[in-house]
Specification:
This protein is of the alpha/beta class. About 40% of the residues lie in helices and about 15% in strands. Bound molecules: adenosine monophosphate.
Length: about 475
């Protein structure tokens, strides 16, 4: 089966070919013909399956006929995060290059004024996070009675983030004659209730869960003897040194640890940057861009922040913590080994993690082999050889790293980040409700090599432009 067999028109097929894709993925193959016929679709699929194109492609086709009216978008896509919204917008730009569709994003960080102007001109495609959409609606800037197609993307994630009441309300504001394309990786009872209520005789398409991809990924447990953070960070560094990743995501269960681990790795000379919902949006966007460009090797992330990020080339995943929900483990390691590529995942496990590990092994139905780097003893050792750049650095080296990072700039960077935090949208909650679209930035810093040359790159903080936020420079609690 090729894209030519799905009923798409020549201008769209040309745009798909230009993007380099020749064969539809299973969800695309099954969803697109039904969506083109106007059927409701319930897609049970997760990120990495090609689900985004399975709704953007038919939407471009359907919307190519007709024109928008002021304040009345012709289609609406609800998404849990700003990053995902930006990726969907990228999809429309890529595949819609031969169509003249107008698009607006209602997401945090984009000024209301700019969005109001776009809405007034009339938009074919409106991509929004639920809270921000309702803000605009309540301000009387938006009518949803012209919505012909409505998409709900990553519904189960929106459930986790408490968006279901907002989504119900939005559904009720749209015409019942609309076409609905609804996507969720899982179908908990609340989501099932929502689809029963708002979808009309949908075609149900279920594509293989990521758990099957777990088979293509080489997975290892790195055991630590103690459960203390210092042993875990030492184990993480040992795993990174061993794996020598091109780019990797390091997952932590808590936002606080995302910052601590990013700071610790940075102080040890690794090109690392944190991403989580509490960071100022400008920092998140820039970090993601830098990571996508390969300028930041290690992205330290929480589950929510990483959800939906379209990062095609991750060579490794590291779990600083084992997740408490085994499904999250599968999501996390699914960041590597995508689309048939091979991938490697290392997970730090302390003696306290035995239960979490057993739950994961039961879900993926295999035992994860252990890799022993012998770091536990080293991490607890009172003195380190000064020449060992990959271990805890000597105190004077650390103070010179901190002191030599262009003092004035550093302060400016810290200040601007705090300012950005203060300016965050008031509706914002910890679950990273909304984000502005990715902006291309030129990052002048590049990550260096590893190992012996580590001291040469210790003055670089990768992915944050010329500004090194103060939180990356503060000492890590418990680190000597
Ligand atoms: P998604 O599940 O929509 O997040 O897509 C996951 C990744 O698959 C993205 O990097 C897409 O660009 C890519 N992709 C989407 N459709 C195809 C296709 N037909 N063939 C190959 N890759 C695709």
């Amino acid at each position: 089966m090729t894209f030519n067999d799905l009923g798409l028109s020549p201008p769209l097929l040309e745009a798909i070919a230009a993007s380099g894709y020749t064969t539809p993925t299973p969800i695309q193959e099954q969803a697109i013909p039904h969506a083109l016929q106007g059927r409701d679709v319930l897609g049970i699929a997760q990120t990495g399956t090609g689900k985004t194109a399975s709704f953007t492609l038919p939407m471009i086709e359907v919307l190519s006929r007709g024109r928008p009216k002021a304040r009345m978008p012709r289609s609406l896509i609800l998404t849990p995060t700003r990053e995902l919204a930006a990726q969907i917008a990228d999809n429309f730009e890529k595949y819609g290059k031969n169509h003249k569709l107008t698009m607006a994003l209602l997401i945090g960080g984009v000024s209301f004024g700019d969005q109001d102007r776009l809405l007034m001109q009339g938009v074919d495609v409106l991509i929004a996070t639920p809270g921000r959409l309702l803000d605009h609606f309540e301000r009387g800037k938006l009518l949803l009675t012209g919505v012909q197609v409505m998409v709900v993307d990553e519904a189960d994630r929106m459930l986790d983030m408490g968006f279901i009441p907002d989504i119900e309300r939005i559904f009720k504001l749209t015409p019942f004659t609309r076409q609905t394309l609804f996507f969720s990786a899982t179908m908990p009872a609340e989501i099932q209730r929502l689809t029963d209520q708002f979808l009309s005789n949908p075609v149900r398409i279920e594509v293989a869960r990521r758990a099957t991809a777990a088979e293509t990924i080489d997975q290892f447990i790195v055991k630590t003897q103690g459960s203390d953070p210092k042993s875990k960070r030492a184990a993480l560094r040992a795993a990174i040194d061993f794996a020598d990743p091109q780019t990797a995501i390091v997952f932590c269960n808590r936002k606080r640890d995302v910052d601590i681990v990013a700071r610790s790795l940075t102080r040890h000379g690794y090109g690392a940057a944190p991403i989580h919902g509490d960071l100022a949006q400008a920092v998140r966007t820039q970090t993601l861009e830098s990571f996508k460009a390969g300028e930041t090797k290690l992205l330290i992330a929480s589950d929510v922040a990483a959800r939906g990020l379209d990062i095609p080339e991750v060579s490794h995943v590291f779990n600083y913590d084992l997740p408490s929900h085994p499904e999250d483990y599968v999501h996390r390691i699914g960041r590597t080994g995508r689309a048939g590529r091979s991938g490697v995942a290392f997970s730090i496990a302390t003696p306290a993690d035995n239960k979490a590990r057993a739950a994961i092994e039961s879900l993926i139905q295999k035992q994860i082999p252990e890799k022993d780097f012998g770091v536990a003893e080293e991490a607890d050792a009172p003195a380190k050889p000064a020449a060992d750049a990959s271990d805890d650095a000597p105190a004077e080296a650390k103070s010179s790293r901190r002191g030599s990072r262009r003092g004035g700039r550093r302060r400016g960077g810290a200040k601007s980040q705090e300012g950005a935090r203060e300016n965050a949208a008031p509706r914002e909650n910890k679950a990273a409700r909304e984000e502005k679209p990715a902006e291309k930035r030129n990052n002048s810093k590049r990550s260096g090599g590893r190992g012996k040359s580590g001291n040469e790159r210790e003055h670089e903080v990768v992915g944050l432009g010329d500004h090194t936020p103060a939180f990356l420079l503060r000492p890590v609690p418990g680190e000597t």
